[in-house]
Each structure stands twice: as C-alpha cells, then as structure tokens.
Specification:
This protein is of the alpha/beta class. Helix 1 packs parallel to helix 9, helix 6 packs parallel to helix 7 and helix 18 runs antiparallel to helix 19. It contains 21 helices and 20 strands. It folds into four domains: about 130 residues, Response regulator (Rossmann fold, 3-Layer(aba) Sandwich); about 160 residues, Response regulator (Rossmann fold, 3-Layer(aba) Sandwich), CATH 3.40.50; about 170 residues, Beta-Lactamase (2-Layer Sandwich), CATH 3.30.450; about 150 residues, Reverse transcriptase/Diguanylate cyclase domain (Alpha-Beta Plaits). A ten-stranded mixed β-sheet has the order 5-4-3-1-2-15-16-12-13-14.
C-alpha cells in the first residue's frame, strides 16, 4: 500500500558536480517534507561517444511508470544540446504522452513545463566584482559558453551587470561563445599564443572546464597565470582545486535549485502553500589563478573544497572498493549461481546501501542468433522481470550460496518498477536509484538500490561497481553458453555425447538417493537414407528434428535427452517407477510420431526403432554397458521393422525378452 508521495527524477551522469549538488538539494527537501524519491539515471553523459553503449544506458528511462509518480523533476541540462537533442526529444515525447503528474525542470527548459532556476546572475556578478575590485581588472573577456542557452544568458547578464555597475564597457569582442568544455578554453589559449587574440587583464569563464582548458594550455604555450592574465571559472568542479595552479571559482547555489524544485512540486501536489525555506550555499573560492592563493596554502584550500579523494584512507568506500578484489571474485565465478552470489556478497562495498535488487529480463542469459537479434539494441523491458540478486543490509539473511534467494528467482510485473517500492512502512523516506544493466547495446535488466536520503548521491564507487557487475554478467553469460554449445547438439538442442557424459554423475546421484535403478532408452530413426535420397537432405533434417521434439517431449526434468549421432537418440534417467513406466514413455513417443505424421501430410512417415535397459548402476561404466544393451535391443527391434516394412507398427518386445 502506498504510504508516501513519490517524486521521480530523470537525470544523466550523476557523478557530475552539478547533478550531485542539485540532487543533494532535492534529497534534503524531500527528507524534510517526507517524500520518497525514485531516480532514473544513466552513468554516462548523454554525449557519450559510443552510441551503442549509450543506447544500453538510456534504456533505463523506459522502465518509468509515470502513473506511480506524484511529481517529476527533470534535470534537463544533462541531456539537452547533445546529438541533435535526440535524448531530449525522446524524453519530452515520453513525458508528454504518459505523464499526468506535475512536472518541473531545473535550469534548462523542458518543453512547456515549469522551470526553476539557479540564481547564477547574482552569483556571477559577485565573481566579476572580485576580479574588478580586488584585482583592479578593467579589460575583461567573458568566455560565455554555448550561445543561446539559458545558462550562458544568465551568466552573461551577471557579468554585464557588474561591469556596468563599475562603469566599465563591454565591447562585443570581449564576449566569446563556445561549448562548456575544455576544448573551448584550449582554442582561446591557442589564439593567444598565435597572436590572434590580445591578452586582457582577465578571463572570466562561464564554467570551470572552459577555464581549466585555457589555464593549462596557456601554461604549455609559455604564458604565466596570473602574471600575464587572471582566469576564473564557475561551478567549483573537482578539478578546480585539484589543478595546479588551483582555479579561482564560485560555488553556485545549485543546492537551492534542487530544494526549490521539490517545493514547487509539493505546492502543486498538495494544492496548498508549503512553508519551507531554501538554503544559501553560494560562495567564492579563491585559487592561484587570480593571485589570491599560493602554493603554500593550496592543499588547505583543496581540503576546504571538500574534494580531496581519499583513495588510500582506510574506512572510506573507495578504499574498501579498491582493496576488495570484487572483479577477481566475479571473474572466478564458475556458474551463474556463483556469479549471482558474488554480486550479492559485494553489495557491502556500496556505501550506505540499504537494499539492492538486480532485476533481469527473463532469458537474458540466452545466446543464439535469435536471442541476440531480439535483445541487442532492443528498447524497453518485457512485461515481467526476474529478481536474480537481492540484498538488504537492514535484515539478517542466511550466509552462503543460497543467501541471495530471499527474493531471487521471483518474478514481478515491470509496471510496478520495483517489488518493494511501496512495500511496508519505512520509518524514514528513502531514495531508490534505478540504473541500467547492459553490455554495450545489449540490454540485460536494471538494478535498484535504496539509500537513506542524506547519503543518496551516486559515487564513482557505485558506477565502477556496476560496471564490474555488467561485465561479469556478460562474461558468465558467454562462458555459460559456450559451455552449453560444447555439450549441445546444434541442430536439435539436445545433449551431445559430451553433454551426456557430463550428466552421468547427476543421474547416479539421484538413483542412489532414491535407491532406484537407472534406465536407458535407445532410439534410431527408420528409413533416414531413403528420405534423404528421395526427398532431399532438408527433408531428412526436418524428420530428425521432428523425432527429436517427440523424444524430448516425454522426458522428465531430471532425464538426459541425447542425440548421439545422425539419427540416433538416447534417454537416460533414474527409474523410480519401474520398467512399465519406461515402456509407457516409448509408447508416448510412438503416439506423438503418429500424430505428427497425420498432421504433416508428408509423402513419408517418421518412425523409429527402440531398445530399453533398466538396471542397477554403481558407476559411469555401468551406464555405458547399459547403453550397449539398449542399442542391441534397438537393432533387434529395427530388424523386425525392416521385415515388416511398415511405417506405423505397434510396440513390440523392446525389452529383448
């Protein structure tokens, strides 16, 4: 039963500092208002260069059931202006057609839906004020980012406002547009080095990535920063303070934008005023590129940023991950069950994870021409999903290979998205992250991870953990299917001789456990040479397949069904019900063949000869001897058939008695 309001979030590249900060604001306000959050995200940027891989990632958005959501937040900035807006258009069409709940986007428009914005204009004024007032710069260039985007326009207004307030003109040449990426800054550095662009007092960049591209390439060309000119960025990304020289930047009030988005939805969902304030987190962070910082205090400033990566500090999730040998454990998995157990056993590496579900498409492990064409690049998910791994760190579960079976091998309707989304009464609201499980463009399923609100952002640990899982699943899938191909007959799908011998031990184990005999049925098609010579080998293959289907149809789950040669078959299993029961199996094969012959309206009948042996078996050699006996009885039966030359004959004395 649904207990809390549920807000959906659509985003990409969740490790990006912008997405991370916005999400923290969303989670904080949802926690305050007691709302649950479901996040649907790719791990990569929407402009990922491998389009096949991107297809596998973006398939996660097809799992969204908008009817279950009370509100939707779209972080448009993550997928707008990429690949001709392909993902943007796809998501907008999806929301327009299926979403009936209130929708709000953040910082970039999403169709005609409402938008809340980060107050970049005022904050950009402040960083421009700093360059003018503290460093006495007058000739300032703005590297404005992509022309026409909302973000560029707002930050440009803040720059112009500050310049005007200080009585400084802004010539058209001082506003330069380009992408929000290193490459834009690198081009500007090359223009400076070639003399195509005069050196100003300062460059104010609309993003840290632009600024870092300029700074690092300018230094490579022999320029000095900040002696030749000052450079500032905006957004305070990880590299800003990790860079040498450290970059002067500004922490924008992105956190507040996330809070405002939740408040916006809450007002519309509950149709009442929401008495809730937003935070104030925007602030200037001075680095070495404006001269306010020095090498001596660079490390302290990086710590102040909070972006030092504690890879080698014990107790952190990154330390546990890099020293946990998860990849090696998964690679060592010999069976599908081993792989699933090893995935479950390594959930502890995901910091603050309360619950993990691995939901797979039924038949995801199949590997043949048909299944590959069906699953490679397929959009969406089937009507039902299978839970293959479940781990809840809040519950005590059984240790050992069966530990992941609490929910495993159970099926649920994909329309509910997650079997425990509305189950039970959680004391506190939670965040559910839905992420894709795929290998390149081949969909396999998706994973759902539940986190507490205060620590729910996706880290590089979870991204790489998930990549290990994807790769391990593909490897065990291929390994498993290659093994199956080595023990299966390609024409009929039945075991070949190698597969037969690989299963002897299991038959012996079951017969000893039940204190029963082992049975062998030898089967050989009649008149195959005549069919091949008269009607062609295609018809001969068709007849073999028909016989294989009839033989397999009478086999129990524990029986071994084998194609030992061109037209020869064996059924081997434990004989709990005696010889009469085995004889009835053969009678059913004959009946099914007769039915096939009546319906096929072919010029020939598909018939077979049979031999049965039932006996106590202690080891594999005993079974081999039983096969020889069954073969002898089958050949005796075939001799009788040839003497009658009848296509449809009754069951004779196939026991050889």
């Amino acid at each position: 039963m649904k207990k809390r309001k549920l807000i959906g979030v659509i985003t990409t590249d969740p490790e990006n500092i912008y997405q991370t900060t916005v999400m923290k604001g969303i989670f904080a306000k949802a926690d305050e208002l007691d709302y649950d959050i479901v996040v649907f995200t790719t791990f990569v940027k929407a402009n990922h260069p491998d389009k096949e891989y991107l297809l596998g990632e973006t398939n996660i958005f097809n799992v969204i059931n908008f009817d279950l959501l009370d509100g939707l937040i779209v972080l448009t900035i993550g997928f707008k202006y990429t690949y001709d807006n392909m993902l943007y258009d796809r998501l907008l069409n999806m929301v327009d057609e299926k979403c009936k709940c209130p929708v709000v986007s953040i910082d970039e428009s999403f169709g005609n839906y409402e938008m809340v914005s980060t107050n970049d204009e005022k904050e950009f004024e402040k960083i421009t004020d700093h360059v003018i007032e503290v460093h006495n710069c007058k000739n300032i260039y703005l590297l404005a980012g992509a022309e026409g985007t909302y973000t560029s326009q707002v930050r440009e207004r803040g720059f112009r406002n500050s310049m005007a307030a200080h009585g400084l003109e802004v010539p058209d040449k001082n506003i330069i547009y380009g992408e929000f990426w290193y490459t834009f800054g690198e081009r500007v550095a090359r223009q400076l080095a070639d003399g195509e662009l005069e050196k100003p007092d300062a460059f104010i960049a609309a993003s840290d990535y632009i600024a870092l591209g300029l700074v690092n390439d300018a230094i490579r060309y022999g320029m000095k920063i900040p002696e030749d000119f000052i450079v500032t960025g905006y957004d305070c990304v990880l590299e800003a303070k990790a860079n040498i020289p450290s970059l002067t930047s500004y922490v924008p009030p992105i956190f507040e934008a996330g809070e405002k988005a939740v408040i916006n939805l809450a007002k519309r969902i509950e149709n009442r005023p929401i008495n809730s304030k937003v935070s104030s987190t925007g602030c200037l962070k001075c680095g070495m590129t404006c001269g306010c910082s020095s090498n001596n205090i660079a490390l302290r400033e990086r710590e102040d940023y909070g972006y030092i990566l504690p890879y080698n500090q014990p107790g952190t999730d990154m330390y546990r991950f890099t020293n946990g040998y998860m990849a090696e454990f998964l690679t060592a998995s010999k069976t599908m069950d081993d792989c699933m157990y090893n995935i479950m056993a390594n959930v502890y590496l995901i910091d603050d994870c309360y619950e993990y579900f691995l939901c797979m498409c039924p038949g995801w492990e199949e590997f043949d021409a048909d299944s590959e064409s069906e699953n490679m690049g397929e959009i969406g998910y089937p009507e039902q999903m299978k839970v293959c791994v479940y781990r809840c760190t809040e519950e005590i579960i059984q240790e050992g290979p069966s530990a992941y079976n609490a929910y495993t091998n159970s099926y649920f309707d994909t329309s509910v998205m997650h079997p425990r989304l509305f189950e039970g009464e959680r004391e506190k609201p939670a965040v559910f992250h839905f992420v894709p499980v795929h290998f390149n463009g081949r969909r396999m399923g998706y994973a759902v991870t539940r986190f507490p609100m205060k620590n729910a952002t996706i880290s590089s640990v979870y991204r790489n953990w998930s990549r290990y899982v994807n790769n391990a699943l593909e490897m065990i899938r291929v390994r498993n299917q290659l093994f199956l191909k080595s023990i299966r007959d390609p024409m009929t799908g039945l075991f070949n001789r190698a597969g037969m011998k690989a299963n002897f031990r299991e038959v012996l184990r079951k017969s000893k456990k039940k204190e029963s005999d082992v049975f062998v049925v030898a089967i050989d098609m009649n008149n195959l040479k005549y069919i091949n010579d008269t009607f062609g080998h295609n018809e001969g293959d068709k007849a073999i397949k028909a016989l294989a289907i009839c033989v397999y149809s009478v086999c129990g789950n524990d029986d071994i069904c084998v194609r030992t040669g061109g037209d020869e078959f064996l059924i081997i299993g434990e004989c709990s019900y005696g010889e009469d029961y085995v004889k009835k199996r053969v009678e059913k094969i004959v009946q099914k063949l007769n039915s096939y012959n009546e319906k096929s309206k072919s010029s020939y009948d598909v018939t077979a000869s049979y031999g049965i042996c039932c006996s106590d078996a202690e080891d594999e050699d005993d079974i081999e001897q039983m096969i020889e006996v069954a073969d002898e009885r089958m050949y005796a039966d075939k001799a009788v058939y040839k003497s009658t030359m009848s296509g449809k004959i009754p069951i004779r004395d196939i026991y050889g008695t």
